[in-house]
Task: structure prediction
Amino acid sequence: MPKDSAQQSAVSSFIKAQIHIIQVRLSFINKEAMKQITKRTTLPRFEEKSKVRTSELISKAERVIASMKSPARQHGLHARFGILLMGLNALCLGTAPAWSQESDIAKQAQNPIARLISVPIENDFNPNTGPYKEDSYVLQMKPVIPVSLSKDWNLITRAIIPIIQTPDPAIGINGAAGLGDINLSLFLSPAKVGRIIWGAGPIVSFPTASDDILGSGKVSAGPTVVALRSQGHWLYGALVYNLFSVGGPSSRADVNQMLTQPFVNYNLRRKWYLTSSPYVTANWEKIRSDRWTVPVGGGVGKIVRVEKLPLNIYGQLFRNVKSPDGTTDWSARLQVQLLFPKK
Result:
């Protein structure tokens, strides 16, 4: 074989080999993305386009190489293509892990029954409450601890520990500040994640309030369930429970209350996301006009790191389109969630 033909063949083979490596890595990125960020829309499109453009690139490269009669020019072409293609290889190699880690930690933080330990600290501000239009604050600690029961099932424990400051609820009744009733939820959830992630179990409310107006005074229990789906940039679902009083002083009112928390999250670049997660409540013991509280609104959040500890921080504003007399027309929420992912 003539020397020029051998060099031409070597250059062509080198370029084809580099392009093949890019294709393999794109395929790997796509598979990992499907696992970690659930069908991220940009990657499949990129891979489909790359299959067409790869064949075009090979054909064009062969025509250019064939037109080069000077061995020196062929060596220059070899170097340029080599640098370009190896740069693309490095880009493909480094892209998937960053995307996967960012999206994975954000979606775990947004999942109420994720398999990681977390401690959300939530502060709710409710202005213009009560007959004197004073402000009310609720600080809630919500530690979540997952426990593996077997290869098929997990148990997720979720406690709610409220610290409440409430103004005078009615004329002649003084406000108070202190500990409210502590709730404990236990979710049994499949270890294998499907299209729908779900958990169900009991919820129990303990009469731990430090003042009568900060709690029900009753032991209450009931069912709770959560279901959600992660799809592309989206994570959405709902958490529901209903509490019924099962013990406590007969002088205190019976408990029959429902809470529904729909949540919708849209994940953006650089660990930012849009979110909406209002608390829709119904007190079935009240008359119809004072039964429902229905807020509408949302906000923005971001995953940040303090040294090696990831934090999920978000703020939301809500407008109550339906609420009992004497309660606020709007509210604000700020949450800082400590995340402890498995190493």
Remarks:
- Helices lie at 3-36, 42-67, 71-110.
